[in-house]
Structures are given as structure tokens and as C-alpha cells.
Amino acid sequence: MTKTPPTSPPDLPCKVRLLLSLLTLVINTVRRSNGTINRRLMSLFDLKASPSSKPNNRVKTSDVMVDPTRNLWFRLYVPAAAITTTTFRRAPRRGRLRQLPPRSGAYLSLQYEDGFDVLKFIDQTTIDGFDLNNVDITRCFLAGDSAGGNLAHHVAVKASDLHEFGKMRVVGLIAIQPFFGGKERTESETRLSKGLALSLEQTDWYWKTFLPEGSDRDHAAANVLGKEWKDVLGVKFPATIVFVGGFDLLQDWQRRYYEGLKKSGKEAYLIEYPNSFHGFYAFPELKESSFLVKEVRDFIEKLCYAPSGISFLI
Ligand SMILES: *[C@@H]1O[C@H](CO)[C@@H](O)[C@H](O)[C@H]1NC(C)=O
Predict the structure, then answer these.
(1) Which of 161, 186, 273, 283 is most buried as measured by Cβ atoms within 10 A of its Cβ?
(2) The whole model's pTM is what?
């Protein structure tokens, strides 16, 4: 008799298991079988934290509007003490996106454009009450987890040397368990199809809802190593760090992404946590969650304090 491999890590704290079960329940309740989301129900769980001008954990936050006609804005995080690093984070858009019909092709490019437009805005605009002279936008990093990792990749392609910025240079991409896929069923998708935190039934549903009508999972938004990989090969792609969890069914696609970058001569790093499931970093009680923070910090420092004159700073 063959032994079924485990689909979730051993020794997971009870609290984490409980929260994951609740999260799965919520996600499966707001997803409808016709490919739409029950937004009224979701808004009960999808609360927006307010920005704070008083330092919270030594960080001040404010929201900056980029384009009111489409409610595109981002949250700015500024360390209250001497500025060393500033994180620009693109917050999810609200408002107009809700009114778009589901499964519209425009959905996709809109979200990638939003991220790119925020970079162009930062490159060109003086932000009220924030001195850009203190921030080195020639060393900008893009970061995203899960679907955000997918977004960050596509924004990085747009923000490469295909576009001429003023000062802005994207030098690093932090892809935390990026959400990629394809028509093929990989070994990890089959083995972990009923995996903890993310199942194959869920990923199929997300792709079906997200991708334009009439396309399949080999669409370039999902299968980045497919037909349009040449777009990445041709550009000066930022140094990339990819985080992979051994209990995440998406891991085969993420490893292929890293290998694809390496094969194309790009600077790429792969960090694997064998006991981690999709979204593990949301749980500070897991040791891998602090390992990840340290790796990200080291990656940024390596790229920022490396000897000058090397190519990625050009
Ligand atoms: C999907 O189902 C919901 C709830 O039954 C319904 O309100 C909505 O109109 C449906 N949408 C589409 C596009 O079929």
C-alpha cells in the first residue's frame, strides 16, 4: 500500500490551525459558484485600517491619492526617526473596480497598470508633507505576496527598461509565494490539491474569475513562463528573491519562475521553507515568518550597499 503524503505541516500550533479553518470558511462563503464575489459579506471581513500621523511602531502612515477618477491611491509608510527605508505600498483600489462586470478582460491590465501608474506618479510628483530628497528612488523595490507577487512581477516587467523614468529605478523584486499557474497540472498541485490554506479548487476558481473570458490558465497573466516570457528575457529585470513553501500547491510554478530567471541570466535567489503553507507569513508565531523578514532585509541591504558601479544601479 502506498502511503499518502501529508498535506499539512506537522506540529502546527492550534491557534494557527483554527484561524486557517476560519479563513477558509470565510473565503469559501464569499466566493459564488457563478464566479462572482459576495462583496457585501466580504466588506465585513475586509476592514481598512486608518492611516496614522502619530508613530505606530515607529512608523507614520498616510494615504496619497494618485488618480481620484479611478480612486487609485497608495499608503506611504515613513519611519518616525531618521529615514533609512521608505516603503511605498500600493493599497487595493476600491470604488470603481466594484462596478466593473466580472470576468472583463479590462480587469487584468487595469491592476497591472495601477501599480505601474503609482511608480510613474512617485517618479514625477512631489508628495505633500513628504520630502522625496530623503528617499532614494533610484533604489526602489517591489514586493508582493501571493496574488501581490503576481502583480509585482507584471509591474516589474512594465517598469523595466521598457519605460523611461526620470529618477526611479526598480532594482529588486520580492516575490513571496507568487500566484502563478498554467493549464498543466504540476506534481505539487496534484499532491497538495486539498492542501492547507489553498486548494486546487480555489486556485482554479480564482483563475477562472480573474482571467479574461475565453482564455485558459496559459494566459500570460498566469503562466508567466509561457508565450510572453520573451518580454522578461529582453528586459533588464530587477534582482529577484522568490519565497517558496513546501506545503504550498503553487510551489512548482514558483520554482520554475526562479529557474527561468536564472536560466535567462537574471540575478535570482530562491528561499525554501519546507514546512510552510501558502500565507504562512501572516502568522508571527511561526518561526519562518521571522526568517522571511530577515531574508527580505538582507536582500535589500545587499542590493543597496553593494559596491557601486555594478549594473543593477544603472
Ligand atoms: C451570481 O449569483 C448571485 C447570487 O445568486 C447573483 O446575485 C448575481 O447576479 C449572479 N451574477 C452573475 C453574473 O450571474
Answers:
(1) 273
(2) 0.86
